[in-house]
């Protein structure tokens, strides 16, 4: 280019379009924020001193721990089940297809609160899990009726319900991958399992991760429903209990909100990195610079006469780069 | 081009294909000898791609027989009755047949090198370092040694298609199928891909090439088959068919593409 145009071009200096709307909206929203901040500071009923007292209270911090444990374990359970359900839904085996459909229909069609109450009451139906020979001797027994074991029904209730929603997210993800990917892998002689795990699922994850992150954050808050089981150690229950003891609900709501927001923020950071990982090769990749001269030179040399030339010399520009 | 041992590698006999009531292939017979480059041309909708896809069972075979290297594709014949092969057996047959697609179908989440290494490692169980060495050789062979770390989205269409050829070659197939390999490419990138295919033909690879590149057929093809309406209209030496077509439909098609 340079040898054709010796002089540097005069760059255009245009007057940019003005955006008065931005200034007006900044003033309105900024003003509202100042008012809110002022009331937060001056209104004594917020009782920031109580917030400060309880923010690191043992019961509260333990509540955060239990809430996290519930969120993580029930999501892990849900993700494992959801992958299974989504793959079953695409299976050639009609029994598996219908089973998956029925599962999603049932767990999506009943309220999670109802399901949690049910799992809490399972102990009435089955006081203990026993393993043995039918009508014969008992080999193993695990008492479910012990109230301290509310954790397991809580995880089951949350996880199974969530699996139905995640199964649909995973199904959408699997369907989003181009059919040509399966064909290419099949043509290479890959087995169905390998095609799913190594080719389809990694690409589907790009679509699956954002809504699954959404569901995980939703689950963090849904764990507050476990009092239906009842399971009474999670963050919401712990802060409610403290609030009822000292007759000050608002500061403890703030304490709970603070912790939920903190954990949500941490989860969002994790989601960002997961998205970056599964987006490799597709997202945030600048296309490699195309050198038109190289392409032309290669094309010009080819279509007919010179099949005798070795391949490597046909792409000198590319090899040089 | 070169002396060809008259040993059939692919035999297609009486191949029919239905999509519902739509009769796409109406009795195709085609033989491809070892080391031969068989070029198939024809208008779109003539069934040439469908026929190619039947050879590695990406489409089921409605009627007829296809055999590659003496073994029946997709079926086992026991006492005159056909039994469907299991998924594992079909995968084993496909390993011997490389396929290159019109839309490349590279794995977008893997680099060029990883695309080429995937099947040798995962299907053949080759050690990674062996597969890597061979993959780099193949990428060098298609002129992309310096692009091994690029993702498909960072490569031009022509480069992607050459990676796809290297990926298919990594399984050391005895037969290569090309399904309109240059139809999705910008005109200036077609030559790179055709060059790789010419080189492959010279190395003695048996190839079935569905294409619109008449020049390639003339120069590299050992046999040219013209298909229309799900049947083989005319088949023979490419230079003869192109310069002296026997059927009116062939003449009409060639007059439009040449």
What descriptive keywords fit this protein?
heterodimer; A: 321 residues; mainly alpha; two-stranded antiparallel ribbon; 12 helices; 67% helix; disordered C terminus; B: alpha/beta; 6-stranded mixed beta sheet; 28% strand
Layout of strands and helices, then pairs:
The complex is a heterodimer of chains A (321) and B (258).
Chain A (H helix, E strand, L loop, with lengths): L19 H23 L5 H7 L3 H32 L4 H16 L2 H14 L2 E5 L5 E6 L7 H26 L2 H9 L4 H31 L12 H12 L2 H30 L13 H10 L14 H5 L1
Antiparallel strand pairs in A: 1-2
Chain B lengths: L7 E12 L2 E12 L3 E5 L6 H8 L7 E6 L2 E2 L2 E4 L2 E4 L2 H8 L2 E4 L11 H11 L5 H14 L15 H13 L5 E5 L7 H16 L3 E5 L3 H7 L2 E6 L2 E6 L1 H6 L4 H10 L1
Helix pairs in contact in B: 3-4, 3-5, 4-5, 5-6
How would you describe what is shown here?
The complex is a heterodimer of chains A (321) and B (258). Chain A has 321 residues and is mainly alpha-helical. Chain A has helices spanning 20-42, 48-54, 58-89, 94-109, 112-125, 151-176, 179-187, 192-222, 235-246, 249-278, 292-301, 316-320, and strands at 128-132, 138-143. Chain A is 67% helix and 3% strand. In chain A, strands 1-2 form a two-stranded antiparallel sheet. The longest helix of chain A has 32 residues, at 58-89. Chain B has 9 helices and 12 strands. In chain B, a hairpin with a 2-residue loop joins strand 6 and strand 7 (81-84). Chain B has helices at 48-55, 87-94, 112-122, 128-141, 157-169, 187-202, 214-220, 238-243, 248-257, and strands at 8-19, 22-33, 37-41, 63-68, 71-72, 75-78, 81-84, 97-100, 175-179, 206-210, 223-228, 231-236. The longest helix of chain B is centred in the C-terminal third of the chain and has 16 residues, at 187-202. Chain B is of the alpha/beta class and 258 residues long. The interface between A and B is large, with 44 and 62 residues.
